[in-house]
Amino acid sequence: MNGSRLRLLVSFILGILCGAVWMTLLYGQTLDGLYLERDAIYYANNQKLKEIQLLQQELNKYAEQDAHRRETSSKIQKIAVEVESSEKFGQELIKEKVEEIVEPFRGKSVEWVSNNPDVLDTLFKERTIRLSEQNRPVELKIELKYLAFIDNTLKIWVKAREISEKGVTVGRKRFAIPLVSLYYYTR
Amino acid sequence: MGDFWSTTILNYCIALGVVLGGSFLGGIGAFFGNKPPMDAMLNLSEQLKIWALVAALGGTFDTIRTFEVHILGGELSQVFQQLIFILSAFSGAHFGTLLIRWLIQGDLGG
């Protein structure tokens, strides 16, 4: 590279530097303003982010509390049985027997039972109970009619009808059994 | 123009050039470094003032040694000359700083 070209190159570099200085002086103030604005925006953004994180934490806390409350409240704690029968007497005995049958469901999740009602239905399918009423054994067929959840209470309606033993006629009126229907009421 | 005055003016211009050049090029560097250029220039002009003084005098140690030699030798006029050099360098550096401040802030006040 000869001397004139080197001089040209150095002049070019100096020109660039002078131009850069000129541009800095020309647009420096605007740039400073923009930098200040950017800092203010960053600060505001950080503040908002902190606020969002705080709200998120609060939301999580409430969600946890709610989940805990749901967990404790969504267990079956009480079982109520309603019996439909032509017999006015002995219904309490039937209730006791039915409660014994559904006892394993106590403490189970309401959601699980409501999602799998066929378990209860199967439990009562072809189910017979034997009562010793007035010194005479009585055999009853139990069928599930309705099922409802009221808070932590599992309420079930069952139909009970007496069935005669083989070769023995029991002088009681028979009832037509409607189809078992399930009705869910969850709150 | 005698040697004394030429050195005085030279010191003044060197100090002024160090402050102005350092600040301007520092401003460009700040721009490429994603920093506010004018603010960087203002800070640099303050920071470079002392270094401009040192650069103009050619190193503080030499000046101090000259002081010692002339004071011990009883040549107080030489000491006075050195003081003038220091003052002229300081004036150049300070003028550079004022110039930058005026350019950026629009006034000469601190």
From TrEMBL, chain A:
Residues 78-160 form the Sporulation membrane protein YtrI C-terminal domain. It comes from the Bacteria. This is Sporulation membrane protein YtrI C-terminal domain-containing protein. The lineage of its organism: Bacteria, Bacillati, Bacillota, Bacilli, Bacillales. InterPro entries: YtrI_C.
From TrEMBL, chain B:
Keywords: Membrane, Transmembrane, Transmembrane helix. The chain crosses the membrane at residues 9-30, 83-104. It holds the Pfam family Spore_YtrH. InterPro entries: Spore_YtrH. This is Sporulation membrane protein YtrH. It comes from Marinithermofilum abyssi.
